[in-house]
Specification:
7 strands, alpha/beta, seven-stranded mixed sheet
Length: 180
């Protein structure tokens, strides 16, 4: 996943569903004047990751929901990352696919929307992984019991003509170019 960031992150990056900020803190930034906008529903995550990154980069935070238009200016970023968060969003991909629209609206033409998600259908899921997914879905930490590779591909292809989708175990990695 670090290589996913290294390949796609721009000097003006929007990170959506920021988690701990680990990959942002470890990836190779393309600019010495790096600007990162963090978007998350959780103010504690935003505060933590901003603190983690602010000593090296210009960081701003925005509280928002991936299912609603982002409070970020249109076409203001060169890249947007949705890493390991879509499997936590309620609903199936027909519902949560709107997150791709909201992310792409914030990225300039030619920029990248990229990320990863854990799938539960249409990919190899080991017995141990299935047990973990069942537990995480029962606790409502995940919401991916209906997330399939087919549906993810459908949602990406409905929005991007240029995208790649690769699978590693039950995790899908995607990279898409925003068109004019």
């Amino acid at each position: 996943m670090l290589r996913l960031y290294d390949r796609n992150i721009s000097s003006t990056h929007l990170d959506i569903g920021v988690g701990s900020g680990y990959l942002l803190s470890k990836c190779t930034m393309p600019s010495t004047d790096q600007h990162i906008t963090l978007l998350d529903m959780n103010p504690h995550c935003l505060t933590h990751v901003k603190r983690r990154l602010s000593h090296d980069y210009r960081v701003s935070t925005v509280q928002g929901n991936v299912l609603e238009p982002f409070p970020v200016p249109e076409r203001s970023h060169g890249s947007a990352g949705l890493n390991l968060m879509l499997h936590c969003v309620p609903g199936d991909f027909a519902h949560k696919g709107v997150a791709f629209d909201h992310a792409a609206a914030c990225v300039r033409p030619g920029g990248k929307v990229f990320g990863s998600t854990v799938l539960s259908q249409g990919v190899p899921v080991t017995k141990a992984a299935r047990a973990a997914l069942n537990r995480l879905n029962a606790r409502k930490d995940f919401n991916n019991q209906h997330d399939s590779l087919h549906d993810l591909r459908r949602e990406l292809s409905a929005r991007f003509s240029d995208f790649t989708l690769t699978v590693h175990g039950c995790t899908a990695l995607f990279e898409a170019t925003v068109e004019a």
